Amino acid sequence: METYLYEDSPFVFVLVTLLMGGWAAWMTGKASASTWSRYPILFFYLVLLTMGVRFLHQAPFGGNMFSPYYFVVDLVIIQLIGLLSYRVRLAKQMVGKYGWMFQRSGALGWSARSSAE
After folding, report:
1. Could you give the CA distance from residue 16 to residue 12 in angstroms, rounded to a whole number?
2. pLDDT 10s digit of each residue in the chain, 117 long?
3. Quick one: which H or E segment has residue 65?
4. Is the dihedral of CA 76, 78, 79, 85 positive or negative?
5. Membrane spanning segments where (predicted)?
């Protein structure tokens, strides 16, 4: 029986997509922000990472590597984790390096400091 999120089993989905792929997506987003890369470059890296995650579903667990539906499911999850990591790291960098110009505005953003401060 196939479901909307996983094709193998819930354990394989959590292990491969969320834990392994999620950790790699988090580190990829963090590294891209550290090198001041733009979103299209990050998107490209995360597409390659999703191909690797699909391979890990297929090779040891017998999933279908070329399933377009499950590729998109994995891609969306990995993109969300990668973009979250990217924004967290970028906000930290902007406030850390340019603290005289920017202040923290939530966990994912920054804003310009007012001249009254």
Report:
1. 6
2. 457 777 778 888 999 999 999 999 999 999 999 999 999 999 999 999 999 999 999 988 888 888 899 999 999 999 999 999 999 999 999 999 998 999 989 889 899 988 655
3. none
4. positive
5. 12-29, 41-57, 69-88
What backbone phi and psi angles, to 5 degrees, belong to 82?
Answer: -65, -40
| Counts for the chain of helices (H) and strands (E), in that order | 4, 2
Map residue 103 onto helix, strand or coil: strand
Q: Which residues pair with 42 in a beta bridge?
A: none
Side-chain-side CA neighbours of 43 within 13 Å: the count stands at 4
Tokens 């850390």 locate to 96
Phi, psi of 103, deg, nearest 5: -130, 160
CA 109 to centroid of chain Cα atoms? 17
Which structure tokens are listed for 14?
A: 């959590």
Q: What is the DSSP letter of 116?
A: T
For residues 112 and 101, the answer to whether their CB atoms sit within 8 Å is yes
Residue type at position 21: G
